[in-house]
Amino acid sequence: MVHDGWMPASSIDFGYPWWLSYGHLAVLVPALGLLILGRARGWAVWPMALFGVVAAWAAAALFVTRSFEVNGVAKLPVANFLASGAGRVLDIGAGTGRSSIMVLAARPQATLVALDLFADSFKGHFGDQGSPRDRLMANLKAAGVDQRASIVAADMRKLPFEDASFDAIVSAYAVDHVGREGASQTLAEAKRVVKPGGEFLLILVGNDRWTKFAFGPMLTHGGTRGPGWWRQRAGDAGFQVLEEGTAPASLFFLLRRG
Ligand SMILES: C[S@@+](CC[C@H](N)C(=O)[O-])C[C@H]1O[C@@H](n2cnc3c(N)ncnc32)[C@H](O)[C@@H]1O
Hints:
With 258 residues, the protein is α/β, with parallel strands linked by helices. The chain folds into two domains: 18-68; 86-257, Vaccinia Virus protein VP39 (Rossmann fold). The chain has helices spanning 18-22, 25-41, 45-68, 98-106, 120-126, 132-142, 179-193, 209-215, 227-237; strands at 86-92, 109-116, 149-153, 166-172, 194-205, 239-247, 250-257. Strands 3-2-1-4-5-7-6 form a seven-stranded mixed sheet, with helices on both faces. A hairpin with a 2-residue loop joins strand 6 and strand 7. Helix 7 packs across helix 9 (227-237). Bound molecules: S-adenosylmethionine. Residues 93-95, 98-99, 116-117, 121-122, 125, 155-157, 172-174, 177-178 line the site of S-adenosylmethionine.
């Protein structure tokens, strides 16, 4: 069964920008206000129709973003990742800990190394308040999983680990931030550091129609890279695709090192 992701989440702060969760309210509230005002003052049909369409889009888009909840604790999208429940896991591009906590919560016997470069991309996503490392550790502590986690600052394209030193790897919304060559390098490095037969849960920003409906081109991370591109590159790196699917705003692959 896929873990339900329950966590004492009140003090966790993943720090994704507010507009990803609630930005559509900034459109919905004024549009509703104009509709109410227009009705009271008897405005013409066409501006009222326009405000109605905008309000309907903003309400639907808000519903879509609430189904994702980027600042909430995530659920594992697949049941078969590290099904034994134990082992040493690497999180590539851990950020403020959302993907690390997802795995540690669902696999209480596992330990995890949370790796991130903690540089410009981190600041671009999470702002520059406080030390990135401290923010990640604070979230791991708030989730009660810090005793099973350690933090490493490094570039995902050149992992500072011995060959075959992890039982499994997770990466969420990170490998699609380093360009095509960087993604291929990272997949090759992931293959090198995971044990033969080890799994890699690769989660990417999904360019699905709901994400496009809510955000237009703003979340297009993979450029023109679709599922086929990732499947091909994973195969080139030496991974077999065990499962593939989509979740709100996400495309995921469960890979296994051959
Ligand atoms: C969108 S965040 C994802 C964070 C986390 N995995 C999650 O699910 O919320 C992408 C992360 O990738 C990290 N990153 C980007 N380029 C990197 C690189 N070359 N090496 C390591 N981490 C990198 C950024 O610092 C950022 O924290």
